[in-house]
Amino acid sequence: MSIHAAEARHQIANLLHTYVAIADRKDVDAVVDLLGSTQVHFPTAGSMDPAGARQLFTQLWSSPEEHRHIVNPAQEEGQWLATAHYTRWLLGGDAPLVHTLGQYELLVDGVDWSLMQLKVSRIWTAGT
Asked: Nearest to residue 53, comparing CAs of 34, 68, 71?
């Protein structure tokens, strides 16, 4: 493994875990700072600019119910395309509930380590 590849893995993991922490806090201002100029794709919506990101994440995180993501990263070689599987837990009620199993796909610029694209896929959702 080259030092460049090791640095890429480190930078990508930092970006992914930064996003997950923001998502778990439902911090719209922070996600707009991180992803405002990024192409974002969710199964039912997306954004490509700061105004669109603000609208998307305000809607996405409007539920007052708490949730937590657990992320298991995996790296694909090439154009710094990284994938990570996640489990989304709903916290509340009598016990935590696994709500969603899914995958993040990140396209990262290897020069400045900025996110170019975030694609979120759902593999399974409770009740569907």
From this structure: 34
